[in-house]
Amino acid sequence: MSNEATLHSQQEVMHGAHDHHDHEHHHEDSFISKYVFSMDHKMIAKQFLITGIVWAIIGAFFSVLFRLQLGFPDATFPWLESILGHWAKGGRISAEAYYALVTMHGTILVFFVLTAGLSGTFSNLLIPLQVGARDMASPFMNCLSYWFFFLASLVMMASLFVQTGPASGGWTMYPPLSALGDASIGSKIGVDLWLTSMALFVVSQLLGGLNYISTLLNMRTKGMAMTKMPLTIWSFFFTAVLGVLSFPVLLSGFILLLMDRHAGTSFYLSDIFIAGKALANEGGSAILYQHLFWFLGHPEVYIIILPAMGMVSEVLAVSSRKPIFGYLAMIGSLFAICILAFLVWAHHMFVTGLNPFLGAFFVLLTLLIAVPSAIKVFNWITTIWKGNINFTPASLFSIGFVSTFISGGLTGIWLGNSSIDIHLHDTMFVIAHFHIVMGVSAFFGMFAGIYHWFPKMYGRFMNNTIGYIHFWVTMIGAYLIFWPMHYEGMAGMPRRYYDVSGWASFKQFGGLNEFITIVVILVFAVQLLFVFNFFYSIFKGRKMTNQNPWNATTLEWTTPIHAGHGNWPGEIPEVYRWAYDYSKDGRDFIPQTEPIGPNESAH
Amino acid sequence: MDTAVTAKKKWWAGGYSPFNVSYGKLMMWYFLMSDAFTFGALLIAYGTIRFSSPSWPDPNEVFKSFPGMGHANLPLMFVSLMTFILIMSSVTMVLAVHAGHMRDKKAVAKWLMWTIVGGIAFLSCQAWEWTHLFHEGAWWGRNPFANVDGTQASTNFTNFFFTITGFHGLHVTSGVILNIVILANVLKGTYEHRGHYEMVEKVGLYWHFVDLVWVFVFTCFYLL
């Protein structure tokens, strides 16, 4: 079906019995159809983004709370009792509350912020705009995708307020702990709500992912060959494929877990004692859940990082006024990462009783990921090499991304070795590794995307000064927070522990832990400054006067400043060249819509 | 638009679908791949647990009843009938899709009708089998059947059986509902007005997929 036909049928859904439409004819949208149940991909992107921001504030605030416990295990903070009630009696977070906070921090950040908030926002915003489509293939499914995410959010939010608290067995929700309500207070209704919310989340991801894939395969404008697409689109493509193929496996795992909780089955349970009493469950395997979980869990980290990689590639090329270095190698490495993503899951399970012989293969495949990752890193560095870089907040965050991706990625090579992992698993070293390589990096990619495409979203600019403050404090803060954790981890300091001050060997880190906590608070405050900047700029930011403020080649900047539903007022522009003609033949940039001239050099 | 259709048409160059399919069909294919992973995960989980168990009940002993036949020993007869019904419903679905290509509204309605009947018949058979097993004492968390070597079996035989056939049954149910919706649209003339019966093809893809999954479920639980 052509793009025109799609938009027509979509408008019929919205407005009922109109027979004929013209794109330039604007409808009076009601508040509900414009801002709430919107079917415009640009509005849905903003919905994902703002919901993601709300979740990010909550999730990050949780980390501040449990960092208080880790940094100041003996101190009391009376204000904690006023916000957490009996979870923080006497101003000290209880062990149960600590585990709940850690679990929710992981769940919220991994799924609700860095999956839905990141790829949900930018796949929606950029796929139709950059491939030259009027909207997603199915705007209705797109709308549903957001509202399933919203429902998932509501259920997860509700779980924070039930009497026994939210799920608290860690964001991986390993059985048997999560399967047995009697095992811990955090395994009661909180886990049911968690599983329900995540099932809704999987539905949302599926609806979104199917849409992203079919839009960018089927609805590219004339001339937009796959190899002419910006790297953002390639990264969203692989992200969506990863999601569509790995989330269902997680869903299967959850179905079995829910059965174990409520139908008396023993899929994951065998030989268990609770409070000295033997349970009847027999024949199941807790490791089975881990396999099912990590079959999603590992692709999930690429679902988080690939969109960031795509946006960073785009922003770096635009801001250094140079074509991306190794465009095809970039696509090839994305593809390689996408394939390998499905073949390395058991490196999360080296010490859980996995056959060491099997482990050897997972080590090999895991270390192979270093190859495409290194290709990408060298290509980014070569792209900005000798470039005439505009140090906008977006480009700073992109460069920051490359930095954190390198330093976090290198420790991945350590952890990917099953023998080193015996020492390092479940220590703060792991925390340091994945927070830098996928937490901070993905956030940097997201910030780069927000600063770069904010004008496209709202027709205004974000404040640059606050942007610079935001970048430098976050960049330096992130390293100050996570770098010391490597040392703690190498010394054997375990993650997830409520209080390590009882061990003589970890007592030496008391001061370091205090320091980390103080930096966490500082960095959190700066993120609030960013949020202020974001919302303030929506209404009061400097207005965009030029359709193409960054002098970029891609299609989204050929739309009007305030593009209506349908994106282009007239015909969709045709594309003649790739997205990276910067500094070519003496010209600063050549838009994709410009035909190739007779004497033009090849790129 | 793309008037100059030549043999050298560049399918991937933008402006049209590289696979020459509508976005809806493309989505359906990707959805089916996704759903294949859901079932794949469940069946692999089943295999994992089964292979790590010392022994397992014999399907010929468990599934040997037939409605109205009392205690006659008819191993796998009933499930063979169920499978036959489901496969026949796939045949009628093929005929419905074919009739759609011919723009033969009456034939589409007729074959869709038979597909729905087949689906409902399959679900009824499944309902009978589940009830029968339930009365024999089998359910989630309860397994009356001994292992083939005579030892007591864990409950995971029934756990997996009810979970996976139930999940498949849920897919058949949603397939039947989709078929009914599409049939209603056919009768209303929606697709005649639209000029093509692609929706029939799309639910057809889903229906064949559900059948194909049954072949695997059938193999794993009844034959192996």
UniProtKB/TrEMBL annotation, chain A:
Residue span(s) of domain Cytochrome oxidase subunit I profile: 31-594
Q: Where in this protein does the record put region Disordered?
A: 1-23
Concerning InterPro entries, the annotation shows: Cyt_c_oxase-like_su1_dom, Cyt_c_oxase-like_su1_sf, Cyt_C_Oxase_1, Cyt_c_Oxase_su1_BS
GO MF terms here are: cytochrome-c oxidase activity; heme binding
Please give the GO cellular component terms listed in this UniProt entry. Answer: membrane
UniProt keyword annotations, A-Z: Electron transport, Heme, Iron, Membrane, Metal-binding, Respiratory chain, Transmembrane, Transmembrane helix, Transport
As for subcellular location, the record says: Membrane
Output one GO BP term.
electron transport coupled proton transport
Gene3D superfamilies to which the protein is assigned, alphabetical: Cytochrome c oxidase-like, subunit I domain
Start-end of Polar residues biased regions? 1-12
Where do transmembrane segments lie in this chain?
48-70, 97-122, 143-162, 193-213, 233-259, 301-318, 325-345, 357-375, 396-416, 428-454, 466-485, 515-536
Membrane association type: Multi-pass membrane protein
Q: Which family does it belong to?
A: Belongs to the heme-copper respiratory oxidase family.
Tell me what this protein is called.
Cytochrome c oxidase subunit 1
Source organism per entry reads Chitinophaga arvensicola
From TrEMBL, chain B:
Q: Which GO terms describe its molecular function?
A: cytochrome-c oxidase activity
Question: Where mainly located?
Answer: membrane
Q: Where is each Heme-copper oxidase subunit III family profile domain found?
A: 1-224
Q: Does the keyword Glycoprotein apply?
A: no
| PROSITE patterns per the UniProt record, alphabetical | COX3
What cellular component terms from Gene Ontology apply here?
A: plasma membrane
Key words of the record: Cell membrane, Membrane, Transmembrane, Transmembrane helix
Topological category with respect to the lipid bilayer: Multi-pass membrane protein
Pfam families xref list: COX3 (PF00510)
Where does this protein reside within or beyond the cell? Cell membrane
TM ranges: 29-49, 76-99, 111-130, 160-184, 205-223
Describe the family membership recorded for this protein in Swiss-Prot or TrEMBL: Belongs to the cytochrome c oxidase subunit 3 family.
Q: What's this chain's function?
A: Cytochrome bo(3) ubiquinol terminal oxidase is the component of the aerobic respiratory chain of E.coli that predominates when cells are grown at high aeration. Has proton pump activity across the membrane in addition to electron transfer, pumping 2 protons/electron.
- Quaternary form? Heterooctamer of two A chains, two B chains, two C chains and two D chains.
Q: What is this protein called?
A: Cytochrome bo(3) ubiquinol oxidase subunit 3
